[in-house]
Structures are given as C-alpha cells and as structure tokens.
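As the next step, I needed to go through one protein, both as residues and as discrete backbone shape codes, included below for the reader:
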Amino acid sequence: MGPLNRKKKVVEQRGVIPIDIESRGKIPPQAVDLEEAVIGALILEASWIPKVSILIDEDVFYKPNNAAIYKAILSLYKERKPIDILTVTAELKKLGTLEEAGGAYGLMQLTEKVTSSANVEYHALIVLEQFLGREVIRKSLELIEKGYNSTTDYVDLIDEAKAFFSSLNSTQQKKSKTGKQFAQSVKKILDNPKPVIGIRTGVLLLDYVTGGHQNTDLIVIAGRPGMGKTVLMLHGVLASWMNKIKAGVYSYEMTGEQLIQRLASMRLTIKNNAIRANKLSEEEKAKMEFFLSEINESSFLINDSNPDLWALLSIMERDVTEGG
C-alpha cells in the first residue's frame, strides 16, 4: 500500500466524508491521456514498473478503470508473473474488475496508443501532479465546510490543515544514494588537516570530546536540579552567538529577562545576583550597557510564553522559516 493510500485510509477511519469536487460544477485537474499512456507503456515494458511504482499508486488515477488496470499490473509484478495483455486480462478477471477496466478490448486499445515507453516516468509525475491538485481542492473544500461549523475547534483545524499539506510534500519519495556518495563526504573530513568541530558548546573540553553539535544531532542534556543544565545550554547559546550562528531558546523555566541576565553574568563574569539587584559598579554598568547593545543588534530569539506542544512546534517552524 503506497503512502497516499495509507493517508486515505486514515482519513476514512476518522469518519471524514469525502467531498465530491466534481459536484461543484468544474472539472478537477486530471490527465486521462497520460494515465492511459503510463498503463499502456507498463504492459509493453514491465521493466519500468519499479521506477513508476515508487511515484504513484492506484489512488492517483482519475479514471477508476485506469486505477483497476494499474492495480492488476502491480499485483502481477509483486508475484513475479509475466505482464502482457493476456496476463493482465486474466488478473483483472481474478480481481473481479475486468468490466470496470473496460474489458479485454479496452486493454488492447491502451497498448495501441503507446508509441514509446521512454517517457513513462515523466508521464507518471504529471499524473501525480494532477492528483495532488485534486487533493488540494478536495481538502480545501473540506476545511471550508468545517470552518463554517460552529462546533469546530479552529486550533485543531489549523493543525489538520498543516499536517495535510505537509504530507503532500512527502508523496514523491526520494531516491536512495550510492555508498560512494557518502564515502566522498567522509573523505572530505579526513582530508581536513584540523579536527572537525560543529557548532561549539562553549566548553572546550566538551567540544574536543564530542566534536561539537553536528548537523542532524539531537542533544539531550540531563541531570538533577542544580547540576548546571541551563548553564551548559547557555554556554552553547553564547558560543553560537559569538560565532554568528543564529540561536533560539524556548524556556519553560526562566523568563526572557532572567535568561538575558544569566547570559550577561556568564559573558561579563559579573555575579548574577549583583545584576538582578542592580548592585553594579560604574565599570560593570558600562559593560552591561555594551552587552545589551550587542543583544539589540543580534538575531538571538527567546520565547518564554510556555506554549503547549503543538503551539511550540508552530512557533519553532515559524522562527526557522522567518528567522533562519
């Protein structure tokens, strides 16, 4: 079952009634001629099936008869059986969908229309694109219907919309890479005369041991209360800031003002209690003024609004998109 098929099943299980976009008086996006070209090409040249099947499944087809034929082709391919007009016809009979597919004569017509199978992968992408257009229209109409319902939770509706449109971006599966490509990346590390340090933690010994924070790393700092977790995190923030790497802190413990005070204390080696109580010498006040002016010029982000999980994810997504 393809990724699009699985999404459809989830929608059906949640009891969402599909909206008939044709009933709205407009012809939805579709490319029936290319659907037929893809199917005809696969019957004539089965070697294209692995490339096409990772792009589309039967739900992508606009015409039900084309979807039925494509399903029969995939069924034969999975069972390692020969694929031609006769075997596809027999498989459709077995599945009970031969009449739905237009009969044996309809299959003959499909293959007669194919002049070459060379562009079948490109044709499949166009078929997928038209399907995505129909899905966007269908989901948008569904969201509009729900939006007019007074019992709708609009925060949930926004989350539903974001999840749906995000899922459409993942429908085209990425191709696997060769081991050679990854080996070349590793060789670049070996060719570098210096140790590779990612985003620095602000603690030299820790950077040496771990190599810093590398791309794709998920770093969890754990410990009992008062063990210095926040201080270690803020060292990383300072190191990022000083190296002109954009950073953000989402705090459920300290306010933004408290975080700035802690950063100032660490950066200027002034006791945090002295900053909080304004017990600073003139020299320390001058240092603080300069530090705060640096903060004003930076793109350092702090959020201390204590949002729930889904709101936090939305805020972080926005900050990454808008602030980098």
